[in-house]
Amino acid sequence: MSARTRRLAGGLWLAALLLAVTGCSNPNRPVRVRGVVKLEGEPVGRATVVFHGQEGQARPATAFTGNDGTFELTTYNYADGAFRGDYKVTVVLTRTPKVEIKESMTMAEKMQAYFKAQKEQKAELEKPSPVHEVYGKAATTPLKWRVEGDGEWVDLNLKRGGS
C-alpha cells in the first residue's frame, strides 16, 4: 500500500469516526421534541397532540399525553420527533375508557374488559371536554411552535376559554 493510499484510508477512517462521535445534523430527519400539556396549570392526560406543518411542510407529528400531561412527538417511528419548522398545534382530549389489561389476557378477554369499562364509565366519557374546541382544529388553534433543534421541550398552556 502506497503512502498516499494509507493517508487517504486514514483520512476516511478519521472522517467516519468524527461523524460517528459528533452525529449528523440532517435537516431531512426529525429531531426529538418532548413537552407537556396543561389546562390552567393542571396536566391534561389522555390527549392527542398534533403538530401541523406550515409553509409547505406537509408531514405532521403526533403524540398522546400520559396522565401527567407529558408527550413525545412521533413522525415516522415512536418518539422520533418532528422536522424543523413552524407548526400550528392542536390538542383534543381523547375519550376512551380506562381499562386494566393483563399480559395473560386473551384478545377476547381484553375486548370484554374494554366494553365493560366503557359501559361502567359511560357518564364520565360523555362529559363535555374541559379542553376548548378552539384547540382542536388547525384553522382555529392559537397554539404555534417553531421546532429548531434536537431535544426541545414544549410547554403548551391551555386556557378554559380557548384564547
Number of helices: 3
Beta strand %: 25-35%
CATH homologous superfamily (4th level) name: Carboxypeptidase-like, regulatory domain
CATH architecture type:
Sandwich
Query: Which fold does the CATH topology refer to?
Result: Immunoglobulin-like
Helix share bin: 10-25%
Order of helices and strands: HEEEEEEHHEE
Task: Give your account of this protein's structure.
By secondary structure, the chain is α+β, with helices and mostly antiparallel strands. It has a single domain (26-158), classed as Immunoglobulin-like. The chain contains 3 helices and 8 strands, in the order αββββββααββ. It has helices at 3-22, 107-120, 122-125; strands at 33-39, 42-43, 47-53, 61-64, 70-72, 85-93, 144-147, 152-158. Strands 1, 2, 5 and 8 form a 4-stranded mixed sheet that branches. A 4-stranded antiparallel sheet has the order 4-3-6-7, with no helix packed on it. A hairpin with a 7-residue loop joins β3 (47-53) and β4 (61-64). The longest helix is centred in the first third of the chain and has 20 residues, at 3-22. The protein starts with a helix and ends in a 5-residue tail after the last strand. The relative contact order is 0.20. The model is unreliable at 8-24 (pLDDT under 50).
